[in-house]
Amino acid sequence: MIIYFDARALPGATVGISNDVLVVSLATTIAVVPFVILLAYIIRIATVAKRTLSIGPFILRETKRSDDLN
Asked: DSSP character for 69?
């Protein structure tokens, strides 16, 4: 973005902030969003794995409940 962006292409300011600063900030935000989403999923999976008692896949185990049926 910095290499190809020409600051003279966007003269002026919006709400007291230079337009070139706004464009570079927007481009940086768009570039970082996928990594933030990936990090959120990794943190979620780590939290769920930390709070579960069993180690392994999230599946239900069969139990013998023949005493309850009689």
From this structure: H
